[in-house]
């Protein structure tokens, strides 16, 4: 399971609508020299598609979410000694939201309270113009929007402050996040 509460660490979350530009933004922030952690869900899908494929979101969403929690736990452990900002593409909150939606909240009891990130979370809103169904992302835009609304509620219930990123190019989005990080150093 993930590490105990580490509120003093600068772990910044990018979350929001699937297909809303999070991963592209993460790549841009990495290109600019920031420490980043790719989305556990995407890594899990790649691993599962290369293997037996049992924990894929379109086959077994609960197994997929539990695997995302395991990967996120490893990510948090790896970042625990960070002294600078670490930007995560999604977080434990995202996996917990999925399990809660499935009625499996007993598997997430205490997880969010014990594993905090920075209080500000940046969300990518639904953006139909850039959303695409792929071999790895098989759900519809409407399903992505429904997940986005569940995420907002889960983040708010967990006490995070949400900032919706505008639908602008990736450079402008990265500028906004860098400005925030510079103010909080």
TrEMBL record:
Name of the protein this chain belongs to? AAA family ATPase
Q: Which UniProt keywords apply?
A: Plasmid
Pfam families given in the database record: AAA_28
Q: What species does this protein belong to? A: Peteryoungia desertarenae
Q: Which domain of life is it from?
A: Bacteria
**Keyword Electron transport in annotation:** no
Q: Which residues form the NadR/Ttd14 AAA domain?
A: 13-173
Q: Which InterPro entries match?
A: NadR/Ttd14_AAA_dom, P-loop_NTPase
């Amino acid at each position: 399971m993930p590490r105990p509460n580490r509120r003093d660490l600068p772990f910044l979350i990018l979350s929001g609508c699937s297909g809303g530009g999070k991963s592209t933004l993460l790549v841009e922030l990495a290109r600019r020299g920031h420490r980043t952690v790719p989305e556990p869900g995407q890594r899990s899908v790649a691993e599962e598609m290369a293997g037996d494929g049992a924990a894929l979101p379109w086959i077994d969403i609960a197994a997929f979410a539990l695997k995302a929690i395991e990967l996120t736990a490893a990510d948090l452990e790896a970042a625990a000694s960070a002294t600078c900002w670490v930007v995560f593409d999604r977080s434990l909150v995202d996996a917990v939201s999925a399990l809660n939606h499935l009625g499996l909240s007993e598997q997430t009891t205490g997880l969010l309270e014990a594993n905090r990130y920075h209080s500000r979370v940046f969300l990518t809103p639904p953006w139909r113009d850039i959303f695409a169904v792929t071999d790895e992302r098989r759900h519809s835009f409407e399903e992505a929007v429904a997940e986005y609304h569940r995420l907002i509620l889960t983040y708010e219930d967990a006490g995070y402050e949400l900032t919706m990123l505008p639908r602008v190019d990736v450079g402008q989005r990265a500028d906004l996040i860098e400005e925030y990080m510079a103010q909080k150093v």
